[in-house]
Amino acid sequence: MTKLGWGILIALVLVVGGFLSMLSFSGDGEPGVRERLRRANPFVRTPTSLVVPVAGVAPTAIADSWGDARGGGARAHHGTDIMAPGGTPVLAAADGTVEKLFDSRLGGTTLYVRSPDRRTIYYYAHLSRYADGIGEGAVVRAGQPIAYVGDTGDAGPGNTHLHFGVQRMRAGEGWWQGQDINPYPLLAGTAGQR
After folding, report:
1. How far is the C-alpha of 110 from the C-alpha of 104, rounded, in Å?
2. Which segments within the chain are labelled E, that is strand?
3. Is residue 192's pLDDT more than 50?
4. What would the pLDDT profile of 138-182 be if each residue is shown by its tens digit?
5. Residue 45 included in any domain
6. pLDDT tens-digit profile of 23-82?
7. In terms of domains, do 71 and 31 share one?
8. Which residue in 23, 113, 122, 191 could disulfide with 96, CB within 3.0 to 4.6 Å?
9. Spatial distance between the Cα atoms of 17 and 146, rounded to a whole number of angstroms
10. Is residue 52 part of a domain?
């Protein structure tokens, strides 16, 4: 190989080495390119799986009802309905803090949990009641009982189920804001798969 060839090879190795040094895959030092991109866009990161929020229900028993017509076709369904007998424990799908306990015409008795990084809200609706010790500001852990399945709101008498929703949040958004995302892939364990 000629001197010019060796020079080009060395320059190429240095350029590639310099680029690779910018990519950090360990927790040491400055954040890598991927971490800087994730921090720059709050909508990039979402959970990849959640605890099924109804005790005794397997992921395979959940149907994807996202986008189904509701209210006689007046609106689309922005969540996943998980059928269960009334009084079945509702579990926290992920760690977080109870941000709001609320009664609404459509959702009935509802509960909103915000993730520790404040970028995600988990919404639980049609509850019969809250679990003991659950109030606004309570810290909950994934799998912890937080409420009980009911038929409040527009669920209809005897149509006991949990309506479960997930919202991505931007900095400063309140519990009633955010962008709805389909929770089914997160519950079924298929998030990120195609």
Report:
1. 7
2. 69-70, 75-76, 80-83, 89-91, 96-104, 108-114, 120-130, 139-140, 145-149, 161-168, 179-181
3. no
4. 999 999 999 999 999 878 788 899 999 999 999 889 888 899 999
5. no
6. 544 444 555 544 444 444 443 344 567 999 999 999 888 888 877 666 676 677 678 899
7. no
8. 113
9. 51
10. no
